[in-house]
Every structure is written in structure tokens, then in C-alpha cells.
Design a protein that fits this description.
By secondary structure, the protein is of the alpha/beta class. The chain has 11 helices and 12 strands. The strands form 3 sheets. Strands 1, 2, 3, 4, 7, 8, 9 and 12 form an 8-stranded mixed sheet that branches. A two-stranded parallel sheet has the order 5-6. A two-stranded antiparallel ribbon has the order 10-11. Helix 10 (about 240-250) crosses helix 11.
């Protein structure tokens, strides 16, 4: 009798475990992998946002923060369920080539030029970002570039081109490429007393400003749009489509949009929701 009861108990246990596994309730399987630009992590946004999402859905989000270019490559290789990036032309190419399902804009902020308070190139007197960059070149002042194929690096190169300026020949001179994230680039700029382009959110959350300050802002070309893209499971069958889509939908819906709007550092709003409802 005892052996029969043990057998029944074992069968019931196995059935329950199977049901838990199939329903995705095992904690180790109830997560998604997010490949992301570094700015959203460096700004502290994920430390605030992800716990809210997890509390609402029970889904954990594991973040890999790299430059946008590397995030897209990682996703192409199957190392992502969902992306948050900020380089429109590259995102559209990613989708056109069949790696992503759809690009959804969901929030924005802007880029700013920061530099030493002494402002040797008088960037603060500029009326446009084009003039700011021209002043830096004409003064021979130092400029630190991320040089990491990120969304910020892509924007920076676009701004130089739009200003009719070439920086390739200046590499290693007044133009220095660090091949690192935004926080490390800001640290290098402070150490070298050089100018740099930063997303506003990382700049506001940066704790090593010393005698550094924001010198130029507000020109339309400095707009910084973020998008969320679910990776196409037709390319990589292991993509957790349902969980990833739940995350994207949450960001785009009223709950996520309000959470983004509510995130502040020292009273400053870092990101502005703009999903199309």
C-alpha cells in the first residue's frame, strides 16, 4: 500500500512539474534578454523601470548594455529577444533584412555638447550645433568621441558631416576616440578637458562633472529618438516572442509611458514618452 501511494505521489509531482514548465512559470525561464544602448542603462532608467514591469507581469528582464551597433549585431546573431536602440537608419535596415518584427518609437530626449567651464572654443556662444562644431575645430580644442559604433557615435559622425567637417584625419590628435560607453567617454573628456557629445540623460546622471558643464543644447538635429524592436523568431526559433512582445507592449501602453515620464534625477525629467497610441 505504501509503495502504491509513493508511486501515485511521484506521478502527481511529475505532472505538476510538467505543467509548471509548460506554462513558463519556472523563474529561470520567465525572462527576456534585452540588448540595449548604454545610455538607457547609464541614466539609471532600467533600475527604475524594469522592477515596475516585472511587478506587473512577473517577467524578468536581463539587460546587455552595449552600443547600438553592437546591440544590433548581437540580435542578428540570436543573442536577444528584444532591443532598445537609437539609430533610425540602422534599425530600419535591421528590420528590412528580416531580423526584427517592427520598429516602435516610444520615447526621446536629446543630445548636448558638454565641456570645461573655461570653454576655450566659446561653444556656449553658438546658435547652432553646426557652429559649435566649427568653433571646436577652429580653436583646435580637444574633442572626445565614443568611437564605438553606438547610436551616439552614429549621431556624432552625422553632425560632423552635416557641418561640412571631416574628423578622420584628426584621429589621435585633437580628435580622440575612446571606443567606450558614454560614462567612460565623459570621464575621459573631463580628464582631458575636452568637449564631447552626450545624451542628456547620461549627462544628468553623471557623477564626475567637476568643472564640466553643459555648453550647447536645443538645436533640432540633436533630437534623440529611442525605439523598441522585438527580434524575429523566424530568424531565431528560441526567441521568446510572447514575453518580448509583452515587454514592448507595456512600454508602448499608458502604464509604461507614464512610468517613463515619471522618471527623474534631481528633479529633471530624463526621457519623454512619445509612443503612438
Amino acid at each position: 500500500m505504501k509503495s502504491q501511494m509513493k508511486f501515485i505521489y511521484l506521478r502527481v509531482s511529475i505532472c505538476l512539474l510538467s505543467l509548471l514548465y509548460c506554462s513558463g512559470l519556472f523563474a529561470e525561464d520567465n525572462f527576456i534578454l534585452l540588448q540595449s544602448t548604454t545610455s538607457t542603462k547609464n541614466s539609471g532608467l532600467y533600475d527604475y523601470l524594469i522592477p515596475l514591469f516585472t511587478a506587473d507581469t512577473g517577467i524578468d528582464v536581463r539587460v546587455v548594455a552595449v552600443g547600438t551597433g553592437q546591440a544590433l549585431r548581437n540580435a542578428q546573431n540570436g543573442d536577444a529577444d528584444v532591443l532598445i536602440v537609437h539609430a533610425k537608419s540602422r534599425e530600419e535596415k535591421f528590420i528590412t533584412e528580416g531580423y526584427g518584427l517592427q520598429r516602435h518609437q516610444f520615447m526621446y530626449n536629446d543630445f548636448v555638447i558638454v565641456g570645461p567651464t573655461s570653454d576655450p572654443a566659446e561653444v556656449a556662444k553658438s546658435e547652432t550645433v553646426k557652429e559649435s562644431l566649427q568653433r571646436i575645430v577652429e580653436a583646435g580644442s580637444g574633442f572626445v568621441s565614443r568611437g564605438d559604433d553606438s547610436g551616439t557615435h552614429t549621431k556624432e559622425l552625422e553632425l560632423w558631416r552635416s557641418a561640412g567637417l571631416t574628423v578622420s584625419g584628426a584621429s589621435g590628435g585633437w580628435y580622440k576616440e575612446v571606443g567606450a560607453g558614454m560614462g567612460a567617454t565623459l570621464n575621459a573628456s573631463v580628464a582631458l578637458q575636452a568637449y564631447t557629445l552626450s545624451d542628456r540623460a547620461t549627462w544628468l546622471n553623471f557623477g564626475n562633472k567637476k568643472d564640466y558643464r553643459l555648453l550647447f543644447e536645443g538645436d533640432p538635429p540633436l533630437h534623440n529618438q529611442y525605439s523598441v524592436i522585438v527580434v524575429n523568431p523566424a530568424r531565431h526559433a528560441h526567441v521568446k516572442l510572447k514575453l518580448a512582445q509583452t515587454f514592448a507592449d507595456w512600454l508602448l501602453a499608458a502604464r509604461g509611458q507614464q512610468a517613463i515620464a515619471d522618471y527623474r534625477v534631481a528633479g529633471d525629467q530624463l526621457f519623454f514618452p512619445n509612443a503612438k497610441q
